[in-house]
Amino acid sequence: MSKPSYPREFLALLKSVKNKRAKIVIEHILKHGHITTEEIEKYGYKHPPRAVRDVKEHGIPIEMYRVQSTDGRSIAAYRFGDPSQVRGGKLAGRKVFPKKMKKDLIADLGCRCTICLENYADRYLQIDHRVPYEVAGETEGSAHNTRNFMLLCGSCNRAKSWSCEHCLNWRQHRAPRVCQDCYWASPESYKHIALRRIRRLDLVWTEEEVKFYEALEKKALSAKAAVPKYVKEIIARHVDV
After folding, report:
1. CA-based nearest residue to 128, from 178, 53, 196
2. pLDDT tens-place string over residues 81-105
3. Which of 63, 67, 70, 230 could pair covalently with 225 via S-S, beta carbons 3.0-4.6 A apart?
């Protein structure tokens, strides 16, 4: 199957992308016509949808379809969409965050993940929009307002990306207000998680606290229950509803 040809303006847009992860995806599609999740992982990226999002955030249309992996599984593959559907304006590409912004966020939020509340060295924390960039973009002045951003560890950032990408508001409605009421934007006060009626509690045991977790784990094992289920049962016995 021959590779499609693209308008000169579209090729210029592809060439203008400097983000390393997005550039790898773009160059692979240009060369082979598509890229699969399996191929993205071979480049060292363990969260393929995030790499594809990097391309979309530059306004470049991407289509997803299903193919078989080398071991026979059904996996996602991506190719460029209709060049006439290039997005301009607020979704023309995510800006690089200045170092000062990270310092300001650490001053406001502490050097910890906003979701799991675990402390990290600043190099392990990533700046993320509270309301996904793909939903709201960046209105004038919002890029300088630290209230619109949060600090996330790599694990929580991946979890947030997966949850948001499977949310109906993300895929269809794109209403910023709905995102603002979500756990992933406001973990301290929220009404839903990706539109589902869910409440979530992240607990982390560190250093000397680990012994309490290990004791809890032993009791859960004796009760033949997973630790989260066992913790819920303990709470249920001690809370009046």
Report:
1. 53
2. 888 777 654 344 455 577 888 999 9
3. 230
- Domain membership of residue 124 (yes or no) is yes
Region of 18 please: left (phi>0), alpha (psi -120 to 50) or beta.
alpha
Q: Residue 132 in contact with residue 170, Cβ under 8 Å?
A: yes
Q: What is the CATH number of the domain that holds 174?
A: 3.40.1800
My answer on whether 87 and 104 are in the same domain is no
**79 pLDDT above the threshold of 80:** yes
The candidate with the shortest Cα–Cα distance to 82, out of 17, 18, 135, 4, is 4
Q: How many domains does the chain have?
A: 3
- pLDDT band with cut points at 50, 70 and 90 for residue 114: very high
Number of other CB atoms surrounding residue 11 within 10 Å: 13
Q: How far apart are CA 234 and CA 223, in angstroms?
A: 12
The answer to whether residues 59 and 13 touch, using CB atoms and an 8 Å cutoff, is yes
58 or 238, higher pLDDT: 238
Quick check: is 229 in a domain? yes
pLDDT exceeds 60 at position 117: yes
Domain closes at, from 69, 91, 113: 91
**Is the distance from CB of 91 to CB of 119 less than 8 angstroms?**
no
Burial 118-137 (b: 16+ CB within 10 A, else e): eebeeeebbbbbbbbbbbbb
Taking the C-alpha atoms of residue 48 and residue 45, their distance in angstroms, rounded to an integer, is 6
Residues 17 and 64 in one domain: yes
Alpha helices in 57-153 (DSSP H): 99-109, 133-136
Domain that holds residue 22: 8-91
* Distance, CA of 149 to CA of 68 (rounded, Å): 38
